[in-house]
């Protein structure tokens, strides 16, 4: 691979908040790979730490299939939280195996990614600040929502130990009235001292670790996605500023040459964006597929719990709503929203070219502009399973499919 320049704070486009990347060490990870071609210990700590912390939980849930009498209510409830560990593994591995592409994609957060004339620098800077507000807001909402989930689950645990424990084969039922954080089963007397306290501490560690990493990696991927959208919008703005003085264009050959040269720079930037879009799509495809797949599964589980599960306690209902809205609907919605924004911004380039002063130029300029319009006709977006386009229409299909599946399963369980 060819080494690339390190990204510093002064290199980042205006208005983009990357403090979470700096504080978490993820920017250092990207820069180390860009300059040396080697990954530092950050991602290794994330992967090994996740494996060590979540392995006991995953093993216990596997053993529970042999030890616990399950019905559809309890079965779906117990497998709810282990999906977070699976999500973390997928997101870390997507970054691990796509590190070369991911480090190259971070060129999109640089100010010099596009060739912007000096006379447009002030306007483009203002445009960057305006467009990056959405990305910053979504990232802040993610971390705030994460913190609220952690505090609510830790200080107000709502999963009944008796509900999980009293279906264990060969053991008498107990009534302890105790609650714990996660929905997992363990092969110990969960309501007794010191097992209850140890389980509480262990599940607190699992929650803090998984919630933090899920939010960090989601914001990292989503922010880069929105940067691609911002660059498309910026290129469209530059195209609209291609103004031609018809009298000067006919008389001054140097002026004519400079205008055509500027159009060629725009064409090169557009081709560059298309290359980066294809690379981002290939890296994000397994990530989006996994996010949508787990999102549908968890939403179905949530619907089942509301329809036929044990949700008489308003506190449990609130926490289920809180977790589902972030862990599934929020993340899926943001990927669909970001993909739709890119689709819209890329197709708007046609209007931007048409709004320029191409009609005041010669045939050579018009053919070059027409080439760009033809390239911009095909909308670009994210995909799932390589070929399925992801946009806001996808979100509607997911909601409809979730409702149909949950209604069918609830009828089967009656």
TrEMBL record:
Gene Ontology terms describing biological process: signal transduction
Topological relation to the membrane, as annotated: Multi-pass membrane protein
Matching InterPro entries: 7tm6_olfct_rcpt
Residue ranges of coiled coil: none
Membrane-spanning segments: 45-66, 78-98, 287-308, 380-403
Localization of this protein: Cell membrane; Membrane
MF terms in GO: odorant binding; olfactory receptor activity
Keyword Transmembrane helix attributed: yes
Any Gene Ontology CC annotation: plasma membrane
UniProt record similarity statement: Belongs to the insect chemoreceptor superfamily. Heteromeric odorant receptor channel (TC 1.A.69) family.
Designated name of the protein: Odorant receptor
């Amino acid at each position: 691979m060819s080494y690339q320049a390190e990204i510093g704070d002064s290199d980042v486009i205006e208005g983009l908040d990357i403090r979470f990347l700096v504080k978490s060490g993820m920017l250092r990870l990207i820069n180390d790979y860009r300059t040396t071609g080697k990954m530092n210990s950050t991602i290794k700590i994330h992967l090994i730490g996740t494996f060590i912390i979540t392995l006991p939980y995953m093993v216990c849930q596997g053993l529970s299939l042999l030890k616990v009498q399950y019905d559809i209510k309890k079965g779906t409830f117990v497998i709810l939280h282990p999906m977070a560990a699976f999500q973390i593994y997928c997101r870390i591995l997507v970054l691990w195996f796509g590190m070369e592409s991911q480090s190259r994609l971070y060129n999109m957060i640089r100010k010099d990614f596009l060739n912007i004339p000096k006379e447009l620098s002030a306007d483009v800077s203002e445009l960057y600040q305006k467009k990056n507000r959405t990305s910053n807001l979504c990232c802040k909402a993610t971390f705030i929502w994460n913190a609220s989930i952690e505090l609510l689950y830790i200080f107000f645990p709502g999963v009944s130990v008796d509900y999980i424990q009293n279906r264990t084969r060969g053991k008498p039922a107990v009534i302890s009235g105790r609650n714990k954080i996660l929905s997992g089963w363990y092969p110990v007397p969960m309501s007794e001292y010191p097992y209850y306290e140890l389980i509480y501490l262990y599940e607190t560690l699992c929650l803090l670790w998984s919630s933090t990493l899920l939010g960090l990696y989601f914001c990292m991927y989503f922010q880069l996605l929105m940067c691609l959208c911002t660059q498309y919008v910026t290129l469209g703005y530059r195209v609209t500023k291609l103004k031609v003085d018809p009298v000067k264009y006919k008389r001054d050959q140097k002026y004519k040459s400079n205008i055509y040269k500027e159009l060629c720079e725009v064409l090169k930037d557009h081709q560059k964006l298309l290359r980066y879009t294809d690379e981002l799509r290939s890296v994000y495809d397994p990530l989006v597929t996994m996010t949508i797949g787990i999102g549908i599964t968890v939403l179905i589980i949530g619907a089942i719990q509301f329809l036929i599960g044990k949700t008489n306690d308003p506190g449990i209902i609130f926490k289920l709503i809180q977790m589902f809205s972030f862990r599934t609907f929020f993340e899926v919605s943001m990927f669909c929203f970001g993909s739709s924004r890119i689709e819209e911004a890329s197709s708007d380039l046609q209007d931007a070219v048409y709004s320029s002063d191409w009609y005041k130029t010669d045939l050579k300029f018009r053919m070059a502009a027409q080439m760009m319009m033809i390239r911009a006709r095909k909308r670009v977006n994210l995909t799932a399973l390589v070929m399925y386009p992801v946009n806001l229409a996808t979100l509607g299909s997911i909601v409809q499919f979730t409702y149909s599946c949950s209604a069918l399963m609830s009828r089967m369980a009656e």
